[in-house]
Amino acid sequence: ALSYRGTVHALWRIMASEGLVGLYRGLGIVLVGTAPAQGLYFAGYSIAKASFGGGHAGSEASNFAAGVSAQLCGSLCWVPVDVIKERLQVEGQVKTTTQRLSGSLGAIRYIVQHEGFRGLYRAFAIHQLTWAPFNGLY
Known about the structure:
5 helices; 70% helix; mainly alpha; single chain
């Protein structure tokens, strides 16, 4: 198993084994997926705020519900982005497939072919448990 003694050691090991590109694996999907995810987040927040009566004059409960709703909407894009990014990032560290993923599109293709569409949402539940309370309070 591959282990690192710290951040600097990890940087040097990744650079030595994968080169500079190893530090930026998954960047493409993040650049492409950020705008739609943020758009869904803010649209979800606006719709929920109007529906629940949130905002400056709204109750804490309605503002919390609007934040959680926004998180759920944004996650429709964020979760697949995270799954793809993380698969690409660990690929150089752990050999989990017999075939190298050829960037973000290759990762999407591989996940959908081998795990189905649900594979892109593998982390949806834990993502909500992590981020929904924060967004509700924020």
